Amino acid sequence: MAIESPNVTADVIEASEFPELIQRYGVRGVPKTMINESAGVEGAVPEADLLGRITQAAGQSSAR
Questions:
Q1: I need a surface site. Which of 25, 33, 44, 54 has the fewest CB within 10 A?
Q2: How far is Cα 42 from Cα 58, in angstroms, rounded to an integer?
Q3: What domain count does the chain have?
Q4: What is the pLDDT of residue 61?
Q5: Is the model's pLDDT at 45 over the cut of 90?
Q6: Is residue 9 part of a domain?
Q7: How far is CA 47 from CA 18, 37, 42, 44, in A?
Q8: Is residue 1 part of a domain?
Q9: Containing domain of residue 49, as a range?
Q10: What average pLDDT does the structure give for the chain?
């Protein structure tokens, strides 16, 4: 998504090198995809599920 849209940014982090981030985001499995710091998806999920979580998180952030 980040490649296709200038409105999306992505960072890839090696979890074992940043234990403070593991704790901060409650990482229990990889990949861990964080959406707007408020929602997360853990593990490899089907594209439709990921898109659903992104849409849901976008709705939550626009309501703030």
A1: 44
A2: 18
A3: 1
A4: 58
A5: yes
A6: no
A7: 27, 20, 13, 9
A8: no
A9: 15-62
A10: 88
By CB atoms closer than 10 A (0-12, 13-18, 19+), residue 54 is middle
Helices (H), 1-64: 19-25, 47-62
Please give the single-letter amino acid code of residue 6.
P
Note whether residue 5 is domain-resident: no
Q: What is the pTM of this model?
A: 0.71
DSSP state of 44: -
Torsion of CA 13, 47, 27, 8, to 10 degrees: 50
Taking CA atoms, 26 is separated from 9, 16, 44, 53, 60, in Å, by 21, 13, 16, 17, 20
